[in-house]
Specification:
about 375 residues; 13 helices; globular
């Protein structure tokens, strides 16, 4: 079996959307530093992400939009017309110094990941996962849609079917839009109900390509395990994909400020473990995640799982130091467990009758 690979880039270090933006935190650098402190990121397992060229980005985005995005970074300003048409220079998608280079690097990492799994394998691209970007505009902190462009690269490489699984707290509307009615891509999304972008209803099948499961506030580990085993895994397995792309957003964790779900990161670890067995190729991206400690711990735990490392019960001092140096304008240092451990204690609970009923609806589409 090929060695799992980790994609990194220096573009993320110090790059923020602005001091008041939810992405004012350091996420990918924290994952990189934490994994290195644990001895999990030796030179043989990481690859440096290239920056995707504009021509590659037009595999989903319009030429006008890419030109506007590049111009906005160069000029560090946008006109009212560009703001209205392309969604640039807004509160969610602000002008900042790396507003083109950073997302283009995330896409470059995804395209590299596709090439790296050509013959089979596993790649973690924590800088990727921007699932809201639309062909002609930015949306939801996403200037470019890395999952769409990565999946399209997989298909142009000759793969017949790709399963996209999204466990971010927010519905991956841009990905569903891209593959509406597709027979080559199955889009499976578990997301918080009545949460922006307010899409992904249970009855929305994306022209037959999408399995959407909106879940209630307080969604817990027991419920996630039920959904994983009763809906996600059967839907992926029935599709018999050549590759699985997991958008592993960390905003479904209990500590996240932009959602009201209650998962531990053990649910994310369980998801990558189970999905890895269903395809010869697995790409795991980042996504949402707006608490620096919980996000860094989650994606590091995911990488440790993919790479086959034993997770220590208590982090060594060097790893704790990485977590203790993180800052967040919303609060000071968090509870000690977020500084001294990597995997959360389980957050179990009851399975709601409504969730059981909704999963049954989706299973019925599989003929189960």
């Amino acid at each position: 079996m090929q060695t799992p690979l980790f994609i990194r880039s220096r573009i993320y270090r110090g790059s923020v959307y602005g001091s008041q933006h939810p992405l004012s935190i350091q996420r990918v650098p924290a994952v990189t530093d934490l994994c290195r402190a644990l001895g999990w990121l030796t030179p043989d397992v990481y690859r440096t992400s290239p920056r995707a060229k504009p021509a590659a980005l037009t595999g989903f985005h319009t030429e006008d939009y890419i030109a506007a995005l590049m111009r906005a970074e160069d000029q560090q300003s946008v006109s009212d017309a560009v703001r209205t048409r392309h969604g640039l220079g807004t509160l969610s998608n602000p002008v900042f110094p790396e507003m083109y280079r950073r997302p283009a690097t995330a896409v470059g990492g995804g395209l590299l990941a596709a090439e790296l799994v050509r013959g089979g394998g596993v790649v973690h691209n924590p800088g990727g996962g921007q699932h809201h970007g639309m062909p002609d505009c930015a949306a939801g902190f996403c200037f470019l849609n890395e999952p769409v462009l990565t999946i399209r690269r997989l298909l142009t490489m000759g793969l017949s079917r790709v399963a996209y699984v999204d466990i971010d707290a927010h519905h991956g509307d841009g990905v569903q839009c891209a593959f509406e009615g597709s027979e080559e891509v199955r889009v499976i999304s578990v997301h918080e109900a009545r949460r922006w972008p307010f899409t992904g209803a249970l009855e929305d099948s994306g022209g037959g390509a999408a399995w959407n499961l909106p879940v209630a506030r307080g969604f817990n580990d027991t419920e996630f395990a039920f959904v994983l085993n009763e809906m996600i895994l059967p839907a992926v397995e029935a599709f018999a994909p050549d590759a699985v792309f997991l958008q592993c957003g960390a905003d479904a964790l209990a500590e996240d400020p932009l959602a009201r779900l209650s998962l531990s990161n053990q649910s994310h670890v369980d998801a990558v473990t189970a999905l890895r067995a269903l395809s010869p190729r697995l790409i795991v991206s980042g996504g949402g995640g707006y608490n620096p400690w919980s996000t860094a711990r989650c994606w590091s735990a995911v990488w440790g799982t993919l790479a086959g490392h034993e997770v220590p019960e208590v982090l060594p001092t060097a790893a704790q130091d990485v977590l203790r140096t993180l800052t967040w304008r919303r609060k000071g240092q968090p509870e000690e467990a977020l500084l001294t451990t990597l995997v959360d204690a389980p957050r179990n609970g009851e399975i709601s009758p409504d969730l059981r009923a909704d999963v049954a609806v989706l299973r019925a589409r599989l003929g189960h």
